[in-house]
Amino acid sequence: MPPAPPRRRARWTERLRRAASTAPGRLRLSALALVVLVLAFGALTGWQVTTRNQAADQVLSSSQPLSQNAAEIYRSLADADTTAASGFLLAGNEPAAVRQRYQGDLANASQLLTQAAAHAGDSTDAQSWVSQLNQQLPVYAGLVETARANDRQGLPLGAAYLRYASDQMQNTLLPIAQKLSDYETARVDRDYGDAQSAPWAAYVLGALVALTLLWFQVVLFRRTNRVFNLGLLGTTAAVVATLVWLTAGVTAADSALSRSRATGAGPLQALDSARIDALQARTAENLNLVARGSTTAYADQWTKSSNLLATTTSAGQLGVAQRLAPGGAGQDVADARAEFFTWKQRHDAASAKNDGGDYQSALDATVGSGPDTTEQAYQAMDAKLAQAADVEKADFLSAAKSGRDATGLVVVAAGVLAVLAAAGVLAGIGRRLAEYR
Amino acid sequence: MARTRRRIRSGVLAAALLVPLTLTMSASAQSGTGEVRTTAAPALTPALAPEATPACDPTKSVRPSLDESGPAVSAIKRRGVLIAGVDQNSYRWGFRDPATGQLEGFDIDLVHAVAKAILGDPNKVQFKTVPTDQRINAIKSGQVDLIARTMSITCDRLNDVAFSTAYFEAGQQVVVPRSAKATSIGQALKGKTVCVADSSTAQSELKSDQHGAAKITVVGNQLDCLVLMQLGQVDATMTDNALAVGQAAQDPTVQVIGPSLTAEPYGIAMAKGATDLVARVNQVLADYRQNGWQASYDKWLGPYLGPSNGPPPANYLP
Questions:
Q1: pLDDT digits (tens, 9 = 90+) for B138-172
Q2: Rounded to an integer, what distance in angstroms lies between the CA atom of residue B114 and that of residue B280?
Q3: A138 touches B at CB < 8 Å
Q4: Measuring CA to CA, which residue among A98, A162, A144, A145 is closest to residue A290?
């Protein structure tokens, strides 16, 4: 066994040495090397572009929708909490719509959680957050139902259960949902990075292959005094064409992806944070009335969240959302901003009534059925923001699709051109070899 | 939830109501005079003895007066609304009727009586719900004119606020699930996790004597203890028997264990300097004892505490 390999290697290197010592042998070896080079360039180009495409597809079909999902999960959970508090404030007058909205929120959250679980992928963190939320959601719903059952029997224990449920939501579920949402947002950023990474290896190898081909043709010209070798010229043309196609495709894809980010994903994230701040302000507004002066925590939370949204002096989250919003959505966000100031005005009026001892009027102005309640202003604002989100989602989809598809042909082209280039090498060098016969 | 279903069985409910009835009969038997209480309390809990210093008799308050020219009373009259700190979680004392959203109860009736006497309209009241641990703070910072919220008059608290004469007698007892099969407070607490409201008398009671409790969980309100107890996060709750029976009335699977560890008079708390208001409120209470107290008791507490011997007598400073 030990003596065999050296003998075989010696025979192989001997043959190579002998082949290189003759002119036709050298030509054959060069042909082999060039074919390997152009095929390698084609394969590398195809692989790098495919990787980019997959990342772009990931943004389009997975990470961006999932990040929207995560934001939606957060919003559904927070809205369920707010709605449960409204139902409590409305006491025996809770309209069916409030109950339906609460149930819709829970159904929505659990459906989105199922989707999130299916796409959590290999991230153990994301999986564990989703499963924690899946575990906690029925517990929360159970607490709210216990609160209702006690409420219906006229027992103040119901209110104590509602406080406990809300506490669980605010301090356990929502922080987990926030982590999930942050993680998904980071994943969008990462996939955008992958989708927009320049295929440097393909560029460098392509340039090397083109230079080698030129050098080889110059050497061949010196040896044989023939200016044009059509086969090798074709190979050169194919390699250069691949490089040009690659560059053009990548540039087009990058600009489309950047657009999808600028008019879709980015503005959507800004809208999501604005809507979440709005919900927090709304929850604080309701819970402040539930607490009925027993704590200033909710009033402080209102001030904090509403100041984050917008103040008379600073643009706030709504300002950011408006600045980022693409043409079609800008007006919606502007309208939402106007509704927000209406809401704020009504809130201040209601809270002045509350401070003046008129709890019932404050309650009516906040959750009542009239047209001038803060509830109505909040809903109008959120509807406008939802409308803007729909526009931005559509913009995102179309731009991200053209970003993904811009390099789709490059893969095919790189394959076909590599085969043509290899054929060019064989044809071109074959002609020279024929002259030795 | 199995527990919720069980709660509806009326037979259990009736049984639950019997226990507190006998317990508070003994509590109200003690409540006749100060002498009975001071002799009974040290016998039950020697740890409490140092608190009953001879210099301080918590039941003594300023003499009643109809005068409304003092600064505190005229401030309320000028404002036109009485700001009262109450609770919305104490069943039958101060609680929110879930059907109407209105605050109701024995303490709330008392506030309406004060508003009617001073402002001529029982509804000229702004209710502010105050957590147990914020009661003294709310008075001191002037957020409320008075606190009517099952607040025991203690010598400690008299350092910070002034109290009206006593309008009820209560004492600390323990609520446990029936399944614990406890027969005495020592048995109910030994090695258990016990829940109390922050800054409540129960909390200071456990501070001076743990009664064998392994762990103490502090929450904002005694009713939060019942939630935690139903969820299995605590084993027992220590609170005023007046509130404990409220818990038992809301959940027939728990029972109240006695006898009372303490004897505490409930009073209306007001700012320390507002002597004119205290005197005016004492006048309202003097009238209320004759006319109103019994009706309110029968409406809110009678069904749970049984017939009463009437309000505790007023005890005035010389």
A1: 999 998 999 999 999 998 999 999 999 999 999 89
A2: 9
A3: no
A4: A162
Residues in chain B with CB shorter than 8 Å from the CB of A291 are 129
In Å, how far is B98's CA from the nearest CA of chain A?
Answer: 5
Q: ipTM score here?
A: 0.71
- The answer to whether A82 and A170 are in contact (CB under 8 A) is no
Level-2 CATH architecture, domain B2-30+172-257 = 3-Layer(aba) Sandwich (3.40)
With CB atoms and an 8 Å threshold, state whether A156 touches B226.
no
- Quickly state the pLDDT bin for B3 (edges 50, 70, 90): very low
CB-based contact B227 A154, cutoff 8 Å:
no
pLDDT at residue A142 tops 90 = yes
Cis peptide, bond prior to residue B259, ω within 30 of zero: yes
Closest chain A CA to residue B125: A357
* Mean pLDDT, residues A86-92 taken together: 77
Nearest Cα to Cα of residue A188 among A78, A305, A272, A280: A272
- Contact predicate B288/B113, CB 8 Å: yes
Alpha-carbon distance values, B264 to A58, B38, B148, B259, B298 (Å): 69, 10, 15, 13, 21
Assigned superfamily of B60-168+264-305: Periplasmic binding protein-like II (3.40.190.10)
Per DSSP bridges, beta strands B215-219 and B193-197 are parallel
- Report for A124-128, A150-154, B52-56: range of highest mean pLDDT: A124-128
* CA distance, residue A332 to nearest chain B CA (Å): 37
The conformation of residue A156, written as its DSSP 8-state character, comes to: T
Q: Does A404 fall in a domain?
A: yes
Q: What six digits make up the tokens of A401?
A: 């699709």
With respect to residue A222, please indicate whether it lies within any of the assigned structural domains.
yes
Q: How many A/B residue pairs have CB atoms within 8 Å? A: 91
* Residue A78 in tokens: 């927070």
What band does A171 get if pLDDT is binned at 50, 70 and 90? very high
Q: Inform me whether the pLDDT recorded for A179 exceeds 90.
A: yes
> Angle CA(A105)–CA(A107)–CA(A112) in degrees, nearest 5?
95
Q: What is the tens place of the pLDDT at every residue in B64-81?
A: 999 999 999 999 999 999
**Residue B168 backbone dihedrals phi, psi, to 5 degrees:** -165, 155
Question: Does the CB of A233 have a partner CB in chain B at under 8 Å?
Answer: no
**Cβ contacts of B127 on chain A, cutoff 8 Å:** 292-293, 359
What sign results for the dihedral spanned by CA atoms B74, B78, B79, B81?
positive
Chain B positions touching A90 (Cβ under 8 A) are 101
Cβ contact, residue pair A155, B88, below 8 Å: no
Residues of chain A positioned with their CB less than 8 A from the CB of B143: 293
By the CB < 8 Å criterion, does A155 face chain B?
A: yes
Q: Is B86 left (phi over 0), alpha (psi -120 to 50) or beta?
A: beta
Q: In this complex, do A146 and B1 lie within 8 Å of one another by their Cβ atoms?
A: yes
> Would the CB atoms of A159 and B99 count as touching at under 8 Å?
no
Question: Considering CB atoms only, which of A145, A146, A157 is closest to B223?
Answer: A157
Q: A358 lies in which domain range?
A: 22-434
Is B80 an interface residue toward A (CB < 8 Å)? Answer: no
A13 lies in some domain: no
Please report, for chain B, the start and end positions of each structural domain, with discontinuous segments joined by +: 2-30+172-257, 60-168+264-305
Interface test with B, best of A93, A155, A157 (most B CBs within 10 A): A157
Answer for the pair B112, B148: CB distance below 8 angstroms, yes or no: no
Number of domains chain A is built from: 1
- The answer to whether B290 contacts chain A (CB < 8 Å) is no
In a domain, A48, yes or no: yes
pLDDT tens-digit series, residues A238-280: 999 999 999 999 999 999 999 888 888 889 889 988 998 999 8
A91:B1 CB<8 A: no
